[in-house]
Every structure is written in C-alpha cells, then in structure tokens.
Design a protein that fits this description.
Elements: E1 2-6, H1 10-22, E2 26-30, H2 33-38, E3 44-48, H3 56-66, E4 71-75, H4 80-88, E5 93-96, H5 101-115, H6 122-125, E6 131-133, E7 136-139, E8 144-147, E9 150-152, H7 156-165, E10 172-174, H8 175-182, H9 192-204, E11 209-214, E12 218-223
Parallel strand pairs: 1-2, 1-3, 3-4, 4-5
Antiparallel strand pairs: 6-7, 7-8, 8-9, 10-12, 11-12
Length: about 240
C-alpha cells in the first residue's frame, strides 16, 4: 500500500516515514502543497495543514475534488473549528500533533476498513514475503518475528525495536536515533528502557542475531551466520546393530 506523506517538518516526516515503512507501507514524502498535488496517485494521503506554500485545507479540498483517495489530516492545529472544517471538506480523519506512529497506523487501518470494507487494507492483500535475516524472519505487515520458522513472542516495543534494527543490519544506530524512531520524538521517559528491551531481544533471539553495544553511542545488530559444516568430519556413521 502506497502512502503519500505531505509534511514540511523534516524530523517529523522522517520519523513517521520510517515508522510506516516498519509496518510494511511504501511512502512517498513531499514537503509542499504543490508537490502533493503533482504527486503520483497513492492509496492514502497523510496531510499536514501547515505547509509553506499553501494552506493544507486547500490541498485537501483539491484532492477530494479529484477523487476518493482517503485523506488523514495530521496537524498541530487542535482547535475544534479546524478539525470540523477539515472533515467537512473531505478529510476522512484528523490526527493532532504530537502523535505516535502506532496511533497513525491504527487510524490508517480504520479508515481503510471504512472506505474499502470488502477489500480491507491493500497492504494485507498484497502481502510481501517476510524479510529473512539468517534464521530470523521479520513480517512487517503482521508485525511478527520468526526464529527457525517458529514465531517469537515479542511485546509491541520489542517488535518495533527489532524492526528498526533490521532495517540496516550491521549499521550502528545511536541511542537517539533508536529512541526517536521506536519511542517517537515526543518520548520524555528514561532511556534505560531501551537497554531493558535490548536485553529482552538478546535473550529471545540468542544464536540468530547479536545486538552489540557500542558504549556511549548505541547498538548494532549482527546477523549470526549458521556454522559451516566441517568438510573433514565426513558423514555420521550408521548405527550398528547389537553384535552380541
């Protein structure tokens, strides 16, 4: 499922874009109203109202005049009047900033169920194969992980953390990058929670991936290669019967 993200605040857009990708969505990001109106057709539009070149409400009105693409407004304008106007001119839902990625995902799914009740979310209909990292597989649509073909029971945040780290195996991710992507930019709690979740993943995925700590910086996920067979060992001897 392709989402058009219209947002001029780059940190917000990048955090939301990465979150959507973790859940299996394809994302086209533009930062102005004119680019939004010139963009290729999408399955859903996430539209900020505070755009640099035009009012997002005008973009919403124009998009609705062109067709029935679902539109979810995301805006710092929390005034009831703005919400009512946005919905009346064609938006399907309205999310006020600050928001979490999970809330946006839930609203996308709810809107898609309403506008396409027979087909549901297209992301589920065109489900890609899980990503394979050695003996670990990550299903970004179902938000599940499998080890040797068996599902690993993960909490929502453990899955989000694993999903983020497996976007670029081997890359060093700073604590700040991880907290912003997994706990959102609005997280103000202790960062010790990150260490707790890393420890849980290490226990649950032992032998399949290693999560290295780079002291004072962050973490790096390493896919553990299956041990190569010893060519000199030869085949195991066949069991011998009782000769006695």
């Amino acid at each position: 499922m392709r989402v058009l993200l219209v947002e001029d605040d780059e940190p917000v857009a990048e955090s939301l874009r990465r979150g959507l990708i973790r859940y299996g969505y394809e994302v086209d990001w533009v930062s102005t109203g004119s680019r939004a109106l010139a963009a290729a057709p999408a399955d859903l539009v996430l539209l900020d109202l505070g755009l640099p070149d035009t009012d997002g409400l005008d973009v919403c009105r124009e998009l609705r005049a062109r067709g029935d693409v679902p539109i979810i407004v995301i805006s710092a304008r929390s005034d009831e009047t703005d919400r009512v106007v946005g919905l009346e001119i064609g938006a399907d839902d309205y999310v006020s900033k600050p928001f979490g990625v999970r809330e946006v995902i839930a609203r996308i799914r709810a809107v898609m169920r309403r506008v396409r009740p027979s087909g549901g979310d297209r992301a589920a209909a065109a489900k890609p194969e899980p990503e394979v990292h050695g003996r670990l597989a990550v299903d970004r649509i179902a938000c599940r992980a499998y080890l040797n073909g068996e599902e690993v029971v993960l909490t929502p945040k453990e899955y989000d953390l694993l999903s983020f780290l497996t976007e670029a195996p081997g890359a060093l991710m700073t604590r700040e990058q991880i907290m912003e992507a997994v706990w959102d930019a609005n997280w103000f709690g202790p960062t010790k929670t990150l260490d707790v979740h890393v420890g849980a993943l290490r226990r649950k995925l032992a032998g399949a991936v290693a999560i290295e700590t780079v002291r004072g910086v962050g973490f790096r996920l390493i896919v553990v290669a299956d041990p190569a067979p010893d060519p000199g060992a030869g085949p195991s001897p066949a069991p011998r019967g009782d000769l006695g």
